[in-house]
Specification:
3 domains, 6-stranded mixed beta sheet, 4-stranded mixed beta sheet, 28% helix, elongated
């Protein structure tokens, strides 16, 4: 019996007509090769029905030829690329494509794979993904947008009011969960000179919210939502490279003599001396019951650097610090607890 008798006419190669799984600027054709000696004919019919049900429109089923192997051929133009995917139907009735395989019950996953190919091209030509599942260029765009200076006084504002005001200054849209508006807790920090990204993270973290960049197709945006365990969220600043160059006064030698001052007062004074704002990890402080405005610290008269002296004194209060930078490269002192959150 001829293989063609097992292939319904609807399974012939179709013209792509804006299917849901392909980007409008590219076309993908799926060509499935199966061994007729292994009963691929009946399997073809079942695969055709499953693919159609999953929304895959541009595919063709044919008998396997010698040398057939999973592959992606690239054609068309840079503006209108065309990808021909050769998939091999295995003896186990699995569809093998380059770098992956799918059972017939996973045709929707296959449709997602084809959609991803249509949007981003073959895996070897794609930009590598960085944080938040963004490409390097997308992450750079987000970081640049969030590097804008807040520019207004935040101290005393409610967290929801400040978040909404910052959102109005961003180039990408920001969606805020309604739950944030229900709180009326005011902000203790003055964040006017910080970048929008670091300020938003600082505003949201103490109340269990977070900022998350989102990507949908070619569209970038932000979401402010309740933080979840193990969720990747925008941080309060980033580790500083070359901290000594950013804050040279912190590493210069001085005659240090401190007697019975609170850790918070010490940080305030040192921050002014080295020209760096101080931000606290309020979540860690609350978790471990550390109160910088009550913990007293001292240091005998000695010629040393602020960095060394500060680390010694804060450690006695159960605290530590590190130099971080906001998205605009502005350095600040990030103070947390010796014990992890």
């Amino acid at each position: 019996m001829q293989l063609s008798s097992f292939i319904p006419s609807a399974l012939a190669c179709l013209v792509l007509a804006a299917p849901a799984w392909a980007a409008p600027t590219s076309q993908v054709q799926l060509e499935i090769a199966g061994n007729t000696l292994l009963g691929a004919g009946m399997s073809f019919q079942q695969w055709g029905q499953a693919l159609t049900a999953a929304g895959v429109q541009n595919f063709r089923l044919r008998a396997a030829q010698e040398g057939d192997k999973p592959a992606i051929e690239v054609g068309g133009t840079p503006q209108m690329p065309f990808y021909k995917v050769t998939a091999v139907l295995s003896a186990r009735d699995e569809l093998i494509v380059p770098g992956s395989s799918f059972r017939r019950s996973e045709c929707k996953k296959l449709a997602v794979w084809l959609n991803d190919l249509a949007k981003r091209g073959p895996p070897e030509t794609r930009e590598k993904l960085s944080a938040f599942g963004l490409t390097a260029s997308q992450f750079e765009k987000v970081s640049s947008d969030l590097s804008k200076t807040v520019g207004f006084s935040t101290k005393g504002l409610t967290r929801s009011a400040a978040a909404n005001k910052i959102a109005g200054q961003l180039g990408l849209s920001l969606k805020i969960e309604d739950a944030l508006a229900q709180g009326n807790e005011q902000i203790d920090e003055e964040l006017s000179q910080f970048s929008c990204g670091t300020a938003l993270a600082c505003i949201l973290r103490p109340i269990g919210f977070c900022l998350v960049p989102c990507e949908s197709g070619e569209t970038l945006s932000y979401a402010v939502r309740k933080a979840q365990l193990d969720q990747e969220l925008w941080p309060i600043g980033w580790p500083a490279e070359g901290a000594q160059k950013l804050l040279p006064a912190l590493y210069e030698f001085h005659n240090v003599n401190v007697s019975g001052v609170t850790a918070s007062k010490l940080l305030e004074v040192v921050g002014k001396q080295v020209n760096a704002a101080v931000l606290y990890d309020h979540n860690a402080l609350a978790r471990h019951g550390v109160e910088p405005d009550k913990a007293l610290v001292s240091h005998p008269q000695q010629r040393t650097t602020y960095s060394v002296a500060l680390r010694k004194m804060l450690a006695r209060a159960g605290l530590k610090f590190e130099v971080r930078v906001d998205e605009a490269g502005k350095p600040f002192l990030w103070v947390s607890t010796m014990k992890p959150v």
